[in-house]
Structures are given as structure tokens and as C-alpha cells.
Fold this sequence. Notes:
The complex is a heterodimer.
Chain A: E1 4-9, H1 16-32, E2 36-41, H2 46-53, E3 57-60, H3 71-79, H4 88-95, H5 97-106, E4 114-118, H6 119-125, H7 134-138, E5 143-147, E6 157-159, H8 165-173, E7 178-183, E8 189-196, E9 202-204, E10 208-212, H9 219-223, E11 228-231, H10 238-254, E12 260-267, E13 273-279, H11 289-296, H12 301-313
Parallel strand pairs in A: 1-2, 1-3
Antiparallel strand pairs in A: 4-7, 5-6, 5-7, 8-9, 8-10, 8-12, 10-11, 12-13
Chain B: H1 17-21, H2 26-33, E1 40-41, H3 54-72, H4 82-94, E2 104-107, H5 109-121, E3 127-132, H6 136-143, E4 148-155, E5 158-159, H7 161-171, E6 178-181, H8 195-208, E7 212-215, H9 231-234, E8 239-243, E9 255-258, H10 261-275, H11 280-292, H12 295-320, E10 326-327, E11 335-339, H13 346-355, E12 358-359, E13 361-362, E14 375-379, H14 385-411
Parallel strand pairs in B: 1-12, 3-4, 3-6, 6-7, 7-8
Antiparallel strand pairs in B: 2-9, 4-5, 8-9, 10-11, 11-14, 13-14
Helix pairs in contact in B: 3-11, 5-6, 5-10, 7-8, 12-14
Amino acid sequence: MREKIAVLMGGRSLEREISLASGKRVCEALTELGYRVLALDVTPELVQTLRDERPDACYIALHGKYGEDGTIQELLEFLGIPYTGPGVTASALAWDKSVAKRLFAGAGIPTPPWITLTADAFKEMGAATALDLVPESVGGFPVVVKPSKQGSALGLARVEAPEALPEALLAALSYGEAALVEKWIDGPELAVSVLDGPDGEPMVLPPVEIVAKSGLFDFSAMYTAGETDYYVPARLAAEVSEEVVRLARAVHELLGCRDVSRVDMVVGGDGIPYVLESNTSPGMTDISLLPMAARAADMTFQDVVERIVQAALARRA
Amino acid sequence: MGTARVVFDRWDGRYAHRMAQVRSSAVRDLFAAASRPDMISFAGGMPEVSRVPAEAAATAAYEAVMHEGSCALQYGSSEGRPALRAEIVDLMAEIGVRLSADDIVVTAGAQQGLDLLAKTFLDPGDVVITEGPTYVGALQAFSAYEPDIVCVPMDDGGMRVDELEAELERLGPRGAKFIYTIPNFQNPAGVTLRPDRRRRLLELAREYDIPVIEDDPYGRLRFEGGHVKPLRALDDEVIYLGTFSKIFAPGLRLGWMTAPAPILAKVLLAKQAADLCGSAFAQVTAERYFAGTRWRRVLQGLTRTYAERRNAMLCALEEHFPPEVRWTRPEGGFFVWVELPSFIDAGALLAEAVEHGVTFVPGSAFYPDGRGRNCMRLAFCYAEPEAITEGITRLAEVIEDRLELYRAFIAAGALPAAAEGVA
Lengths: 317, 423
């Protein structure tokens, strides 16, 4: 038998169900690969269970708050257990879309114009009186309104006109303290997965093109079969494709990601790929974007899991 | 000490397609588990069984075995014991429905009636009309047979029959397999179908030739106002579901169905497949309880208790809930339905409420299609008045916090003040 791997999943996040599906699939792959597998939910008993079981590494199959924001990563560092995926800093940076976008912009990585507004700015400082400035700041409607920290596109809305903006902001702010208003870029959406090679060198997998039938790749489109079409590899001109690969690698490195990350982009009418966000714990179900991209690169689901888990094991003290 | 281990369902992927339809709400499961010792629950619609006279129930159960063991411990008839059905005939006569014992099938709670009717009537893709929101157990029972569930909205007078008419016009004659309604103190909305609307509903059902299922678990739990005749008293073709759960105890799992003879015959076949016959032991026990107890007095006391709790909840809501929130004022039953401003997601709110030590059921559970996100059902039946006041205070704090933001938008003129509370 190979090493003992604890797969962390579930948790009290709005993405619990998806995480359980990812976790289950990862457990199957690890078992097939010959590892001893321990499937663990994130409950108040987690730390005790980890201390009792002493796994060689943790595979983080958590999505959303606690799993993707640096919380679990920080805890595992404290417990001295190596884990898969980006570390504390990269997780925290990527989780906060507003911070990540500032970093993108600072590094010359194209990202759609946006503003960030916090609940406190509305409650304490009267920010709602300045909503008339929004179109000018982001370059007009339509815009996308989304919580700054939330995965799986929960609380996300496309807004066509100023009248609908306040409601959309309230909805987004019901998921967290800050909301982004971002210029809507019309064009193909891409999910570009990055997987570190055994040498630690990032390898960009073929981009996946996402076409939501409703026009908006929201929570229901994401998880309802038949509501979305995928093209792998994405139908892109060669030079755009090259740029997409360059940007994905640049974002992965800029945020300090390791092992795996998924960079979401949209290609504008100008042919420029704009980076929307980076995910540090991409979905790992059979129909998730990263496994889909891996297949196009002739990697099986097992190959992906093996590579990610080996990277974590290599960090054992 | 528990463990964090996850046990997977290794049979996943081998279940029938229909089971995919009957999923329980992830959010509810998640927070049902989370608990603290002083948790106040407005989630479950559980009767206060502590008021059932234990001696009387024990005597009834004892006698069932000691004096009628040869029946109580044996298989019984599928339609139920004649003596219990005679009791049901009397109960129904009291609410204006004249029946004979042959018109009745005893079921395992009214819930089994829902399942058997769905099994009897529904093929995949058939249309079912319900109130929106409606009883979550009905949605579960129906969903297993893969229908399209169409929800008709309600107001304080119950189902909007004008909306029902519009829906029927769209669907055409026999366009739905049945109309399901809970006319008294509806679960979850708490509202009662107005007498004129009852008549109109029945007219429409006749006109479009669609059976009506009347589910009436709470009819006898009226706190004020006059009795309203059940649909079945106005039309012999109405399928009526009754239950002993609220007038005796849900633990016995006893309910009944009355329906036109051909329907009842089909239901009986379905029931035989489901369980051959109901629990004879439960039936004998109930017969003896009803014969040997002043159960009406017990029920009156129970109803007073629920009324006190309803009053406590309505007072607390009035005092503590922000003006942007609307709620119903039930004249009986177990539930108050609360409507929050449209941008508030009651599922997300539940996470916070649980941390504050209070639970409820988010409104989307009561719709087949994800509507009701900004609503919640509060059950007042199971908590003492003091706890109800405390629970509503806690809940109000959580809502207040969300509304502070909303008010900032209104103060800045970014949202019209007139939109308050309208969802």
C-alpha cells in the first residue's frame, strides 16, 4: 500500500454538495492508484481525526469559504500536514477577487474594468449616493455584479441598466462584505487549467470554452447538465490561444500558486483575453473543467490526481 | 467523540431516475445537523404530544394487546378496521361530510394517502396543480412519480382562484391530473381558503374535469373565527385526506382517505402493494383511545396551547421584526409564512440564524422550482411562548443586520422606498 491520503471535503460552505462530489471522485482515483484513502468531512472533529489518523498528506477537495480562502491551508501548516494545491497566501489572494484583480492590473494582465464596493461603504459612508458614477468607472452597461469572495458564481448577476444595479448589489452583498461591479465583456468564456509538472514547472492545459445557453454561466448553468456547451480545446485563433496560455501561466505565477489552479477568462471582441479570476481549488467531478481539459491533453483523471498528490507528498518535512 | 469520516454511497449511480427528483434540501440538511443546546427551533411542524394523556394512551395500547390481541397483533383488512372507520364517519359528520364506512380507507398518516394518490394518478410528465408554496411532504410524494408541478399563488384568502383559472385555461380540460390544496391554515402559508373561493375552485375543477385533493390536517385546530366547510362537504367527488396526527398523535401513523368509489378501489390496490394493510395494533389503540377518553377536551386544551403560541409569535413578530418584512396571520394550525425583501436569501440567512441559536425552514423548500428564496416558514406549534419570543428576537437581529444595507440604499435614493417588503 502507498501513502495515506486524507481527502478533505464537504464543510459548511454553500458549495458543500459540489465538494462532496469532487471528494468522492478524488477518493476513487486515489484508491485506484493504490493509496490508503481517508475521506473526511470538515466538522468540529476534523482536527482530532487528523491527529489520530496522521495522514501523509491532505488532498483539499473543498470549494468555497474555508477550503479555498486560506483557512484550511493555514490550519494544515500548523498541524504540519502537507496538502495539495496553493498555499495560504496564494489561496487568500485568489479568493478575494478584488485583491486578485488589483494584482492582475498591476502586473499588466488584462482584466475587465471594475469597482469594488463594501457593505460598510454603503452602511457607514453613503456609497449608494454615488451609484450614478458606476457606468463611467467601468465603461458602461451591461455589467456583472458578484460577491468579491464566493466561488461557483453564487450571487452573480448580469445587469443591463442602472435601475437594476442596487438590487444586484444587495444580492451580491448577501454573500459577503464586498461586491464587484465589473464591465461585461461579450465573448467566449474560457477556463484555463494550470498543472505543475513534476519539476514544478507550470503546464497549461488546453483551454475549455464555455457556452452557457442562458448567456450567463451562473450557478445553475454550471451544475445542470445540458445547460452549457463546452469546447475543448477552445475555438481560438492561434495567436489568441498563445496569449491565453501565456496569461494563465502568468496569473498562476503572479499569485504564487502551486500544484494546480484554474484561470477563468473571457475573450473580448478586440481579441484580447481578459482574466476574470483564479480558482485555487478547481472542481474535480467528472464533468468539471479541469478534468475535461486534462482529457484533451491525454491525461486521465488519475494522472491529474497522482500528479497533484505527489507534489504535496514531496513537501513532507 | 465523533469523527470527521465521510461514508460514501457505493450504490450511487444505480438508483432509479425518479429518486433524483426527490432530493432533500442541502441547506436544510446542513443546518439541521448544526445545533447548540439553547437552539430554538421554528423548523419542525411537530404536535405537542406531551399533552396527550399518557395514562389513557397506555391503557388503550395495553387493552389493544390484552383484550383484542388476536386482531391487534394480526394482519387486518386493507381498507382498515370497521370500528375505526365508523369513528372516522362520526368525525367527518361533525365537519359536515356525510359518509359511510365503505367510503373510507385508513392510511398510514395522510402522507401515505398522498403517495398512493400520486402512484394511482401520475405518469412522468403529468401536470399537478398545487398551491405555491405548498407542503414539502406533498412535493416529495408527488416528485417520485415525476410530474410537472404547477404552483398557483395565494394571498390572505388562500389560493388565488383567478390565477388557477388562468392556469387551467392554459392547460385545457383534463390538462392536469389533480389539484392539490390544503384549504385550512395551509402548510406552510398559514392562510385559509375563503368560502367563496372554495366554491369557485370546485366550479373550475368541474368545468375542467380535474379531481381535487383536499388535505386537511389542521382543520380542527382553529383558534378563532367560524368553521369553514371543507371542500368535500360541498362536492362529493373531492378526495379528502384526514389524519389522527393532530387530534391524537403522529406516532400512531394513522390517517384516512375518502374518495369516489372507483378511485378508492384503485387506491386500495396501490395500498395493498405498499403495505398489505395498515397497523391493526395502531388502529385498535386509536379506537380504544377515542372510546375511552374525553379526547375533545384534550384537543381543546391543545388548541388553546397552540393559540397561545401563535399569539406569542405574532406579538413578537410585531414587536421585533422590521417594517420591510411581511407575514401571515393564521387563525389556526401550526405555521406563519414570512416574506423578506426580495434580495434576502433565506437559505443564506439560515446559516447566520443557526449561529444565533434559532432555526426555520427556508421558503424554497416549499416550491418545486427554487422560488420562495426570500421566504421562510416559522412553526409556532412546538416552542413555549417565552422561547418563541426569544427566538423571534434572535431572528430579528439577523434580519436587521441585512436590512441596514437595504435602508442605506433607500436613504440614498438608490432604491424606491415604495418597494419595501414587496417581493
